């Protein structure tokens, strides 16, 4: 078969080990997954009520326009219905944007390391990928990214807070960046962790949308809202941009249950505020641990932290796995001596930190032998 040459050797997404697999391999009763930045507190109880009491007819296609959910997002954010694009997770939004704007002869600019789906989709479309290394603080180097933009650039990807570093872009920096990006370039601002942000100088992306018509913001119900299993994400942009992307959306890309669950979850901002607060406290616990042990880390605005253990991240990963904690090795994330850990519940954080201490102790003992 005559496959596109750019998909030659492309690897399928490698899902981490499941909780059940780890239980079986290591003979453990309890396994905690802190690998995919899912919400350790689950989701709003309103979602359970919806799932129990909804009488959806599953023989009928979902509402392709997702009118109810769309209306709820529109009134919560104060944007028009036609400024919203719904996706099967924000992953699908990234795919639609890539399909619409990337092709051979065009290029796209992004940070490295950042969320891998930008590059993956750009590669599938045959566009040239221009990656700009993060600075030593794990932040986007926006000036260098600007320099990479030329007449053939169609999309620039910003991830703030950035996965996997947790770092964010300040208001001052993003404004000066947007002021200088040519109008023919779509700037995608991925705010998958928006709900967790507590930083002082964080910009208001919805205000920025009013000023910069070539800006598109993506958000998701997978992280703080705790609905990763339902696959609902969305983009907000100018009506012109959304109207170009909307025809690329599959007709029924969000299923009925996902639409309903997301719509009720949006109503429970108390739950989100609690999660944000718990996350902040959890992060502080990790900072304290890192400071005590002299480990390097990036202060994070997400629900995860990247910690540098100064040894192969796979070793730390394996050790924690054998103790019942699934984290992500930095090997696959562009930080080979780090691991990325999702902030869990108080008990989970305490448990994984305890095992990290044990890892360090054992490594020291081995070194002194
Ligand atoms: C998790 C994540 C996403 C994808 O989220 P879905 O809505 O579940 O597809 C997008 N961007 C970043 C930065 C993420 O970490």
UniProtKB/TrEMBL annotation:
Residues 30-354 form the Aminotransferase class I/classII large domain. It comes from the Bacteria. Keywords: Amino-acid biosynthesis, Aminotransferase, Histidine biosynthesis, Pyridoxal phosphate, Transferase. Gene3D superfamilies: Aspartate Aminotransferase, domain 1 (3.90.1150.10), Type I PLP-dependent aspartate aminotransferase-like (Major domain) (3.40.640.10). GO terms for molecular function: histidinol-phosphate transaminase activity. InterPro entries: Aminotrans_II_pyridoxalP_BS, Aminotransferase_I/II_large, HisP_aminotrans, HistidinolP_aminotransfase, PyrdxlP-dep_Trfase, PyrdxlP-dep_Trfase_major, PyrdxlP-dep_Trfase_small. It holds the Pfam family Aminotran_1_2. SUPFAM superfamilies: PLP-dependent transferases (SSF53383). Its cofactor is pyridoxal 5'-phosphate. Its EC number is 2.6.1.9. The modification N6-(pyridoxal phosphate)lysine is found at residue 223. It catalyses: L-histidinol phosphate + 2-oxoglutarate = 3-(imidazol-4-yl)-2-oxopropyl phosphate + L-glutamate. Pathway: Amino-acid biosynthesis; L-histidine biosynthesis; L-histidine from 5-phospho-alpha-D-ribose 1-diphosphate: step 7/9. Belongs to the class-II pyridoxal-phosphate-dependent aminotransferase family. Histidinol-phosphate aminotransferase subfamily. NCBIfam families: hisC. PANTHER family: HISTIDINOL-PHOSPHATE AMINOTRANSFERASE, HISTIDINOL-PHOSPHATE AMINOTRANSFERASE 2. Homodimer. This is Histidinol-phosphate aminotransferase. It comes from Rossellomorea pakistanensis. The gene is hisC.
């Amino acid at each position: 078969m005559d496959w596109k040459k750019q998909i030659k050797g492309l690897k399928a997404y490698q899902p981490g080990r499941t909780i059940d697999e780890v239980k079986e391999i290591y003979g453990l009763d309890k396994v905690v997954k802190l690998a995919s930045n899912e919400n350790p507190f689950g989701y709003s109880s309103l979602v359970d009520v919806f799932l129990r009491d909804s009488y959806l007819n599953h023989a009928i296609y979902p509402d392709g326009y997702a009118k109810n959910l769309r209306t709820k997002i529109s009134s919560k954010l104060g944007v028009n219905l036609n400024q919203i694009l719904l996706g099967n997770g924000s992953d699908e939004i990234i795919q639609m944007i890539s399909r619409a704007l990337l092709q051979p002869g065009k290029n796209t600019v992004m940070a490295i390391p950042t969320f891998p789906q930008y590059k993956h989709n750009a590669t599938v479309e045959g566009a040239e990928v221009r990656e700009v290394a993060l600075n030593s603080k794990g932040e986007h180097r926006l000036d260098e990214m600007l320099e990479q933009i030329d007449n053939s650039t169609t999309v620039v990807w910003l991830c703030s807070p950035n996965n996997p570093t947790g770092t964010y872009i300040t208001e001052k920096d993003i404004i000066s960046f947007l002021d200088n990006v040519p109008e023919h370039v779509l700037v995608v601002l991925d705010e998958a962790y928006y709900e967790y942000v507590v930083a002082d100088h964080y910009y208001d992306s919805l205000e920025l949308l009013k000023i910069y018509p070539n800006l598109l913001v993506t958000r998701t119900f997978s992280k703080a809202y705790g609905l990763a299993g339902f696959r609902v994400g969305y983009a907000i942009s100018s009506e012109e941009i959304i109207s170009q992307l909307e025809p690329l959306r599959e007709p029924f890309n969000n299923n009925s249950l996902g639409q309903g669950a997301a719509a009720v979850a949006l109503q429970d901002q108390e739950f989100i505020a609690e999660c944000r607060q718990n996350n902040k406290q959890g992060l502080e616990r990790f900072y304290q641990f890192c400071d005590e042990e002299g480990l390097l880390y990036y202060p994070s605005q997400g629900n995860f932290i990247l910690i540098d253990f100064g040894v192969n991240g796979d070793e730390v990963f394996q050790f924690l796995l054998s103790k019942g904690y699934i984290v992500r090795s930095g090997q696959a994330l562009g930080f080979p001596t780090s691991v990325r850990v999702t902030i869990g519940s108080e008990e989970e954080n305490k448990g994984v930190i305890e095992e990290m201490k044990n890892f360090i102790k054992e490594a020291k003992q081995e070194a002194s032998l």
